[in-house]
Amino acid sequence: MIIADDVRVEFRRGLLRGKVRALNGLSLEVRDGDFFALVGQNGAGKSTAMYCFLGLMKPTSGKVEVMGKVPELGSPLNEGVAYLPEEPHYHLYLTVEEATRYYASLYGKRVSDKAIHDALDRLGLAQFKTLPLSKCSKGMKQKVGIAQCLIHDTQLLFLDEPTRGLDPLIVREFRETLREIHRRGATIVMNTHVLSEIEMLANRVAILDGGKVIAQDELRNFLTTDRELYTVTFEANGSVPEYLGSVERSGELVMGSIPKDRLYDFMEFTRASGLDVHECALKKTSLEDSFFKILKGSGSGA
Amino acid sequence: MSVLLRANILADFAFYRRSRLLLAFAVLCLLLTGLSSLPAIFSDSGVQSFRSLQGIFSELNGMLLFLAGAIGLFVISSHLRSRCLKMVFTKPCPPSVWLGSAFLSAVFISLFLNSAILGGTVILSLIWHLPVRAALVFVSADNFIVSIGIIAYMMLLATLLHPALAVTFILIFNAEMFYDFQVWAQGAIRAGNSSFYLRLLERLFHFFYLLLPMVNPYGKETENVHSSMRVAHAEWKYIVYSFGYVLTLSAFCYFLALFALQKKRHI
Question: What is the nearest CA distance from A141 to chain B, expressed in angstroms?
Fold first, then answer.
């Protein structure tokens, strides 16, 4: 679906026209049907990579192909593409209904009133259809952006920090809508800082640092289970066993990790002390753990 | 293509409709028309009424040209500055279609306002028992054609420059000004000043005069129609010539603006 090969982007910015190297040999592949997440620190090149995939920026060197073609501004290639920008840079003078109709019409096909109203109904925007976008919250604007995916059969959806600044309820609704769009067969490329969200949605992840991909794999390979270590949470009345590592306390609860060969000792300790064990499971490596480990390995300051 | 053009033009109409600039223009027009018609209301003289009508017509037409420039400038610069074009160009809508739609929408608005001014003037003529002259149609058509050129030129400047710089540029660097400079330099040379620098300056003024677009290329030839409100049959050809000039100018501005638009980073 998307191939980026040794993509470099350099441009000049500011009064002194200082050279900025936004991408520095980025290579990645997004496969058909992927829910692909781009992860990285601020300035890692996530948004620039997305701009290159959308044709909004031309690489200084290297190759970008989307659905087998080189992306360009307003190209026919975009017939199956939808994009939700990080900042809601929408046509603020349009109302919710006008903007939905306008964005949907930009795919070059006539859009029926029913299709517009159905999409607005589904996203809970029907009652706000006459409200100008300038007076809408970011969540509502994002829904207007999503409406075009429901009206047209989007094959490839780009999301740039889609849930930043949204309240938890809208984030949850938004996730459900994305899952539905993905279930319909769309490939989704998302760029976000919220690693827990990636764990919930994505199936493949690329970690970017310094304008290039430093790790790219299936999400499940970033979420490994350490079979030699258990994480435990229990109620403590004072002392804790000396083999308990990474101890954290929260009120009466104590969290920590214990080696596999001390598991029975720990059970004996809690039984003898009459302590309640809230949780005991093999230690899982979260995406966050993998992210920091990979960044550290790459020599980044994280 | 027709769906894209229609969608963009309708969006631009919404932009104009909610623009305070247009609202201010409408209020100003009404105010101006009201004030200018006062003498005619209290006068029984046909000459006085004709002078008032001519004054109102010419003032409104003049204001319309300013508005046409403002529309051309703002429809481009406000979209560029609000960075909303990334929502357009990430769809199968190329910059050529978007720019063409913006130009057409501005031309439609100019046509509508020109027609409204012409219609209003005809109604006033009838109310004041003045003959409806063919020159009204001539002046309106001429004004509309001039407005097309202004729209195209301002759109080009808006893609290249900050709106404030674009306004400054058109106020300072225009063909009429360089023509006046050239005439002054030629006069000085004829008066005996044969300095090399003055000759160089005269050539430079001539070069800029040729380079910069003219607002009204047949302004001198049609001056008489505007002042007397009488048009001879032979003078209608200038409308056709002006239209030809404006089409060429618009095409030139369009392709240059398109080139600039495609080079911009819409992020």
Answer: 12
